[in-house]
Amino acid sequence: MAIEHGAPNVPSPLRVFFTFESTGWFNATTEEKTEQILPQLNKILEAWKKNGSTLIGTFDRDILTAGHAGNVGWHACFLYDVPELQTVTDMTHSFRASGLDRYFRLEAMIGRQFFLLEESK
């Protein structure tokens, strides 16, 4: 059986890889973290559950790292299927609107399933 690989199509839903980097987190006090930052972060992540997106998986690098992200540039990543581009924009903007961009950097990359490992839906 021949494997063909043509030009990629933009998937629907969008496959979105979010990188999550702690920036100002390390300068925050324990009180700020427990009383302000983590509750606000949890509120945003809970809201994402209601925006039509599907969480596929997460990856946190903290097992063998401590401190700033270094050359990799992120501490954790989240993989979602997201219904449309505006939803991706709304997800990244939620960090700006809440002030969490002071403590974390969130970046979204759009791709697709890897054709040899996952069948397209």
Provide a descriptive summary of the structure in words.
There is one protein chain. The protein starts with 13 loop residues before the first strand and ends in a 10-residue tail after the last strand. It is of the alpha+beta class. The mean pLDDT is 92. The chain is globular, with a radius of gyration of 17 Å. Helix 1 (30-48) runs antiparallel to helix 2 (85-98). It has a single domain, classed as 2-Layer Sandwich (Alpha-Beta Plaits), CATH 3.30.70.60. It has a four-stranded antiparallel β-sheet with strand order 2-3-1-4, with helices on one face. The protein is built from two helices and four strands, in the order βαββαβ. Helix content is 27%, strand content 26%.
